[in-house]
Write a structure and sequence with these properties.
Low-confidence stretches: none
Structural class: mainly alpha
Number of helices: 2
Order of helices and strands: HH
Shape: rod-shaped
């Protein structure tokens, strides 16, 4: 139970980091519109 919860949190954190990096990379470009 604890392991699956920790795994879930880790996956969510990775997703947030990847999303933040993607937005940062395309923030100064028109690609930001394509991301969303």
């Amino acid at each position: 139970m604890k392991t699956s919860l920790l795994f879930s949190i880790t996956i969510n954190n990775c997703y947030v980091v990847i999303t933040a990096l993607t937005i940062h990379l395309f923030s100064s470009d028109t690609g930001a519109i394509l991301v969303f």
